[in-house]
Automatic annotation (TrEMBL):
Topological type in the membrane: Multi-pass membrane protein
Residue spans crossing the bilayer: 21-45, 57-76, 96-118, 138-156, 203-223, 235-256, 268-287
InterPro entries named among the record's database cross-references: GPCR_Rhodpsn (IPR000276), GPCR_Rhodpsn_7TM (IPR017452), Olfact_rcpt (IPR000725), Olfactory_Receptors (IPR050427)
Compartments, as annotated in UniProt: Membrane
Name of the molecule in the record: G-protein coupled receptors family 1 profile domain-containing protein
Presence of the UniProt keyword rRNA processing in the record: no
GO molecular-function term, one example from the UniProt record: G protein-coupled receptor activity
Domain G-protein coupled receptors family 1 profile as annotated: residue spans: 39-285
GO cellular component: plasma membrane
A Pfam match: 7tm_4
Presence of the UniProt keyword Phosphoprotein in the record: no
Keywords: G-protein coupled receptor, Membrane, Olfaction, Receptor, Sensory transduction, Transducer, Transmembrane, Transmembrane helix
Domain of life assignment: Eukaryota
């Protein structure tokens, strides 16, 4: 069948058609976006400049913070800008690019969270061999493999979508371009494509989730032989990561691992794992981690002292 495409742009219906509600959402999501960027940058700068936070766990956390910034930046700015306009449009090329980036950064985040679970497993279950198994070279390759796996996944989703014919209508019942809403607009039978999309999403989401669950089950079983102090320390190390995994994987699996149908709740569920969860991540990792909090305090104190010294030097020399 020859592919025909009469659609040069799509109309996004957004989160709501209520103008007053959109104005409130504009302020709210602008605040969310600012918190995400500032919180993640603070994490990245603290880990980068602190000599204490040089373990593989913080190496992965730094990259996770960077991916979260990229992930939210793909959808949040467009969503915020669309709150101020009545007709929300996006070009066909822009739509496909957005779809590709969402799956690239989303997939990278899934793989990084899985890698971090493996890091926790080695740190707790094989502490004597930890620095040998999870060295800098291995960490770097794990990050590269996460990006590569996400790239392949994103290319599959994008190529499956772009080969479909779109001849109208062009209204997407969402606030950004994703595979399932676009499949509804294709003017051909999308059953086979839908099955491949769900299989691809499901294979990645479910397999990574199973690895995460197995890792933490093994960790919890191994903690039975530890002292109460060692058990509490290990649980504190894992608690933040488990919280983030639940907050991200729960909504993500709800969206990805089902047939190509859309529900009214999809928009809010997607908002949760693309914007709300990245916003909460810095708070989760910071508030539950004494090392990060102490490093931030030291970094802030050092910056204040440096600024005070620079300010006092000219007055002393004069």
């Amino acid at each position: 069948m020859e592919k025909t495409n009469n659609v040069s742009k799509f109309i996004l219906l957004g989160l709501s058609l209520d103008q007053e509600l959109q104005q409130v959402c504009f302020v709210l999501f602008l605040l969310f976006c600012a918190v995400i960027i500032l919180g993640k940058l603070l994490n990245i700068i603290t880990i980068k400049r602190s000599e204490r936070l040089n373990s593989p766990m913080y190496f992965f956390l730094r990259y996770l913070s960077f991916v979260d910034i990229c992930y939210s930046s793909v959808t949040a700015p467009k969503l915020i800008a669309d709150f101020l306009v009545e007709r929300k449009t996006i070009s066909f090329v822009g739509c496909i690019a957005q779809l590709f980036m969402v799956h690239l950064f989303g997939g990278t985040k899934i793989f990084l969270l899985t890698v971090m679970a493996y890091d926790h497993y080695i740190a707790i279950c094989k502490p004597l061999h930890y620095m040998t198994i999870v060295n800098k070279h291995v960490c770097s390759w794990m990050v590269v493999a996460s990006w590569a796996g996400a790239f392949v996944h994103s290319m599959v989703q994008t190529l499956l979508t772009t080969q479909l014919p779109f001849c109208g209508p062009n209204e997407i019942d969402h606030y950004f371009c994703d595979v399932h809403p676009l499949l509804k607009l294709a003017c051909t039978d999308t059953y086979i494509v839908s099955v491949i999309v769900v299989a691809n999403n499901g294979m990645i989401s479910l397999s990574c989730f199973v690895v995460l669950v197995v890792s933490y089950v093994v960790i919890l079983v191994s903690l039975k032989t530890r002292s109460s102090k060692g058990r509490l320390k290990a649980l504190s190390t894992c608690a933040s990561h488990i919280t983030v995994v639940i907050l991200f994987f729960g909504p993500c699996i709800f969206i990805c691992m089902r047939p190509s149908t859309t529900f009214s709740e999809d928009k809010m569920v997607t908002v949760f794992y693309t914007i709300i969860t990245p916003m909460l991540n810095p708070l989760i990792y910071t508030l539950r981690n004494e090392e990060v909090k102490n490093a931030m305090k030291q970094l802030w104190s050092r910056e204040v002292i440096s600024s005070s010294t620079i300010t006092l030097l000219p007055s002393m020399t004069s």
